[in-house]
Every structure is written in structure tokens, then in C-alpha cells.
User: Fold this.
Amino acid sequence: MKHFLLLLLPVFAAVVTKAQSPQYQDAMTKQVGLLDVPASYTPQSMLDISNTFERIAAAEKNQWLPYYYAAYTQVMSALMTQDKDKIDGLADKAEANINKADSLKQNDDEIACIRSLIATSRIMVDPQSRGQQYGPESGMQIQKAKQINPENPRVYLLEGQALFYTPEQFGGDKAKAKEVLQVALQKYAAFKPASSIAPHWGEPHAKDLLQQAGK
Amino acid sequence: MWKHSFNLLLCICLPALVLAQQKISGKVTDAKKRPLPGVNVYIKGSYDGATAGADGTFSFTTTTTGPQVLVASLMSFQTQEQAINITGPVQVTLMLKAAMNELKVVTISAGSIEASSDKNNTVLKPLDIVTTAGATADIVNALKTLPGTQQTNDREGLFVRGGTGYETQIFIDGLMVRNPFFTSLPDMPGRGRFSPFLFKGTTFSSGGYSAQYGQGLSSALVLESEDLPARSSYSLGASVLGVSGGLDELSKDKKGSFGIEADYTNLAPYFSIAKPKQEPTVGPEIIGTSLNFRRRTSSTGILKFYGYGNWSRMGFKKNSIEYPGYQEQTDVRNQNVYTNLTYKESLGSGWRMNAGFSYSSNIDKIKLDTIQKSPVTNVHARSDLSQLRLMLTKSLGAFSQLRLGGEYQYAVERSEFNSYRANYVDNYSAGFAESDIYFTPRFVGRFGGRLEYSTVLAKVNLAPRASLAYKLDDYSQFSLAYGDYYQKPEPQYLRFKQDLSYMKATHYIASFQRLSSNYTFRVEAFYKKYKDLVKTVPDTLTNGTGYAKGIELFWRDRKTIKNLDYWISYSFLDTKRNYLFYPYEVQPDFAAKHTASLVMKKYFPKITTNIGVTYSYASGRPYYNPNLPESKFMSEKTIDFNTLGLSASYLTTVGKAFTVFVISVTNVFDFKQVYGYRYSTDGLRREEIVPNAPRFLFVGMFMNFGIDRRQDVINNL
Assistant:
């Protein structure tokens, strides 16, 4: 009898753990869904969404995705804000979250992409002084992501974006940006996220940039 | 059985209980009861929560019941947790306290201007230090646009708040740099020997500085060397001055790097076209090399080596003022080696260690000759300095710190004046202890002292130092500083007479500073009392006196006009001293009452060109006229000093190399500049002391393979 109970225990435990999953799945699906809506992309609503991801992350300490998305929404807020004094604080927060995601899922291309964005946001505070430190860091993270997964469309989006916004004399190249963004779109077309809540952002932005680059 | 069925009942009812939703609502404010929008409020361990609205209110429903923990978190505030018991709807009011980040915590700032790339909120960035048209990549020249400094361009060194160039001490990673300037000729100050780009942080202190630093009566310039480079790079440069090349190699494991740089400067071709005031007879020619090595020894430890070797020779000829019709020739050959090895490591439980060793050697060979009139005078001087330094730092609580350290220097000074020799050896040791105590995060005090002993003087001194700083809000702060500063007399006096004492200065400083990312405003008032300055008449003694007082303003604006960054500084200085051959206290010949600078940089993105303008002004300085009676000593003044420097740099790509083309001109409008007058011994003839090359045109090209360092070049001009 005792043995029988012990045998049951793991089964029971599994049921309990799994019981959390639908709630997790639901909440994440809803929040990740918000990221597909263009209206979510304002500095404030990004922060509101990041609050929810942080709540989920605090309750689900073994899931990397809530941390990942919290970092993503925070760095996006940093990139969009008009108030330069806020950027470093947001970047620090995003960095803390991406470090936690990293400890749960090592060597991930999506995480490297976020790190590249964080470096880019730090440049914006003071391009003259910080460009030299964070510019190469941002580029290095894109290269790292590409090495891990050359099929990740976000790698090409970030690469194209960097080429697009960097002045020609500093190594930017609009024609090359166009090529890379076209690659990004091909990769987006072929990309199948691991699940409905796995990272899949960026396609509309890539199209936008490509249009600006003069198709 | 009955009990059993109750349990069963409970089990059946449980899901229903759990599903019962309760409303949690309330308001979040800051410590001053103002609503806080954007706060993340939630039940710990659940997903249930909400973001506070613009009025600070929040509301959400939860399926949790009983005792729970409500969490409220917001960036730059301390996260707060509050226990609640959910049996029905819950109403709570939460108050968040501001978190103590870098912005909110006060730092000691009286007397010092910091340029750091680590922190966002500093008065200047390291690049700004050298971002000055007309500064010609010289740290000291660039610092001359900051408040507290003098436009004393006829002598080497940084003249600060009524102090001489000797009273400013330069430190690299805590170790003193002897002979930081190339050996100068009369009226031609030597440039700094090191590249400004080796440093990630620069602190220029015009008074009231930490007990860590000694042997500077007026000012300390503290340079902190770079850590590892981001990636490997190679560079080449060519200009009207000469050629340069360098490489900076990052190791494969990215934990170490080494760099080599070499340059060759020869001004003879330039001077053959643009004739200087004095006729060049040798060079000027300089060979410079530098070597650095850095290695991360652990996640917290780093070992750094930096060294340079320079060889220079130059000679000029001019008409003698002493013997009309004859010419005087001065010839200088200099060899200088400087090495600096430092090791930083964390020792655990809040202790950190900074250890350093440095050796430097300077050899000057000077030949003075009034051709065909008097015999040649030969001066040989050699200084060797070895130093050891160890500093331990202990963190006390969140912000407070204790620093303990010791220094030992072994100096050998040799000199030979024709066949007359005067050598001496000094063993100098010092110990210091200092603590930064945060009474509150907004209010800090620094208290410390420094004990020094020099064998050549055979005297001990104890210098107390103290400062206070109080932060009024996120951007503004008040500071006060007080300190005693001691310095050995210059080697030229110690060589001949050693029963002298330390020269002494006491500083009192009050300052207000408002610093945001786009604007900086600073005002500082100071009073400095001098004692025991060297006197040479009637006898060499340390019994000179003096004072300096003044007020300084600094304003910087990086926002009002797009792509334009400018700063203005103004210094008012009232100083008098009785030293050297002065009969009584007068305004010395190196000090101007009013000094002002305007520095502007504008970037034109369409043509990728940077334009920089620097204008500096100084009121006339007194000069010594031997024909005046003693009562009128130093009563005459030179004309006011004006200079306007201009630079333009164009950025482009040549092949694979990022390239910058640069053109810069100093004293564009050819303002007449007179620093003083030199009289013949009989007082019958005099000559103006003027810059040797009143206007200088620089044209150059710099290429960099690998990392983009063009910004360096632009900001160098």
C-alpha cells in the first residue's frame, strides 16, 4: 500500500505541475498576442506589458520566456522613449531579465538578439561617447545569434536595421540594408516558431524598413 | 466517519472556493503622497495583478485567498511587499520609497570636474577633454578651457587658481608622473607626453582633493587607464608634423590585449615654409613609442602595464637681448622613459586592492650659447623615480567606503652645470586614511588625512582633508571642501639647499552644481592660503606667503541647438604672493584676473563634417620691469590675451579603412599675444615674450583598420 502511494506520488506531482500549464499557456498567449498588435508599440504600453511578463516570471521561475519577453518589452520601451534619462534604467532592467532568461536557456539566438538591442539602446543615450563601446557589442551579439541559428529572421532584421540607420561614413549602407532586409523577409516566411508563444516578432517592422529603404 | 465526509466535502468544495474572485484595489504614491503611475502591483506567486494608472490607482481580481503578499514594484523605486489577508475585497494604499541609484546618490564634487565614460552624468566625457579646437590633442591644453585654469601658454604645466605649473601633479592609475611634459625651451611650453585616448576617466581637481593624492599644492589631474579594447585594430596617420602608426591586439580569449604605438615628428619642413619667430637650428624632432599590456586575471582582477619612451631634440637661435648684435642658441636633447604596472583585485568581504609600481627616468642635455661671445654652458640633468603604492578599499554598507594606503618613492636627482655637480637622493614615504561616510544617500562626508616624510627635508607633515556634499534633488547639489596640502620645493632649489621645509597651501571651497544629461551649470568660490613658499632673495628660504581667492562659472548646453554642443567658462582670480625674488605680496606674472573660454562643436551630418571653434580670453598679466622702483614692482601689465582656434574634420572611407581628413588652425585672426617682457641685465633693452609660432596650421589624415576610431581623431583637434 505504502509503495503504491509512493508510486502515485510522481504521477500526482506531474498532474499538479501540469495543472499550472494551461494558466501559463493562457496568460502567455494573451500577452504575446498583444505584441502582434501595432498599437502596443508605445513606450508606456510596452512597460505595462512588461509588468505582466514580470508578474508571470515571478510566479514561473523556471520558464525563460516570461523573462525574455519582459526584457524585450523593456528594451523596446527604451528604444522608443523620448526621455534619454530613462534609457539606462530601462536597459538595466532589460539586462537583468535577459540574464535570468540566459541562465534558464543558455546559448540562445533570441537572447543574443535582445542583448544586441540593449547595446543599441545604450548608444542612444550619447552616441558620440558610447558608440565605440556599444556599437561593436551590438554587432557582436548579432553575429553570435547568426552563428547559433542562421535561420533566425530577427538576426537579419537587426543587421539590416543597423545598416539602414548608421550613416554611410560610419559603415552604414542603404543598398546593403535592403538586401539584408529582403533576406530577413525570406527567413520570416520560412520561420516556424517552436510554439505559439515562442519569439516571432519583427516581420511588420522589417517590411516597414524595407519600404523606407526604397523597394 | 463524520470527520471523513467533512474532508470529502471540503475537497469537493475547494475548486469552488478557489474560483471565487476577490477584487484588490487601491492607490500607490511616492513618499510625498504624489500618485505613482506605472507601478506593477501583484499577488506574489500568482499572475494576478495590474499596472497603476496615471492617478496611481489600480484594481484587479484574484482567485487567491487567505494570507497573501502584495508586491508593488517600479523602476527607480524600492520594491515593496505588504502582507494582506484576502477574505473579501481588499483596499490598500501603498507608498514607495525612491531607490538609491547613481542619480540619486550624492558624490563629492567640490573642486573637481570628472570626465568618465562609465557614468552618464558627468560634467564632461573623456572625449570632451580633448574635444577642443586648438587644443592639438594635448590634455592640458584642453583643460585650459575649464574654470580655474590659466592661459599661461609661455610656460609648461597647468596653472590653477593662482598656483604655478609645478603645483599641479599628474597621476596615472594612482601613480605620480614626473616630467609629464616634453622638455621645453624658453617661451615654448612642452606638450604632454601621453595620448589622451589611453584613458577612460579623467578627474581634474582644482582643489580640495582626496588624501589619496599628495605633493600637489594646487591641483591634481587623475587619469585612469582603459581596460581591454573592444577589438583589434591598426592605425596609420600622416600630417604636416610627421607620421604615426599603431596596433592594438585583443587576444583570442578576449581576456588580454597588447598595444604598440610609434610616431615620428619633425617640424623642420613645416618651419622652413612658415618661419617661426626663433630660427630653428636642430629639428624639432621627436621619436615616440609606447607599449601597453592588459590581462584580466580573474572576473574581478586586472593587471595593466603602460610605458612610453620618447627621444627629442631641438634647437633655436635668436638675437641676444643681453649682447646686441650677437645671437643666442639653445639646444635641448631629452630622453624620457615612463613605466607603470598596476594590479587590481577584489579580496572578498568588501575589500579591494590596488597595487602599483612605477619607474621613470628623464635625461635633459641643454646647451646654451651666446655665439662668439661667451663660453658654452652645458647643463645635464637626470631624474630617476621609482615608486610603490598600495591602497586597500573596504565597502561599509551600501555606499560608504574606507580607503587605506601607503606610498614609497625613491628619487635620485642628478645635475651638472658645466663641471659643477649638485645631486641628491630623496626617500619619500606617505600613508593615508580616508573614509566616505553617507549620513543619508543625499548627504555625504569625506574625512581623511595624509602623513608624509621626506628624507631630503627630514621633516614630517600631516595634512587633514574634509569635504561635505548634499544633494538637493536629482540634479543639484551643494559641496564644501577643506584641506591642507604640502609639497616639496622644486628640485632646482633642493639641489643647492636642503634645510628647507614643505611649501603649504590650505584650501576652502564652496560649490553648487546642477547637472542633467543636456545641461550643466556650476559655480564655485574658493579661498587658498599659501605658506612657506620658496624665496630666493635675500637667501633661499621657505618663508614666502600668498593667497588666492576667486569665483568660477561653468555652463554647458548640448540641447538647445541641434547638433551643437558648447560650453562657457569664466574664472575670476584675485591672487598675490611673495615668493622667489618678490619684495612683497603682488599679483604674480603668471596669473590673470579674468579668464574665459567658449568651446563649440557642431556636427553636419549631411557632409559628415565636424566643425569646432574655441575662443579664449585672459586679461593682461603683470610683468617685471627692473627699471621701476620697488614700490611699483610688477605694477605694469601686458595687453589682454585673445585666441581663436578653428578645426574641421571630414569623415569618409578609403578602401577598407575609416579615414578622417583634418584641418585646423590656431589663432585664426592672428591676435597679437604678449606674455611678458624680458629685459637685459642693465635694463636698457627689452623684448616681448611671444609665441614662437603665433599661428599654426595643421593638415593631416588618419586611417584606421578595424575598430572605428575616427571619433578620436576629430575630438583630438
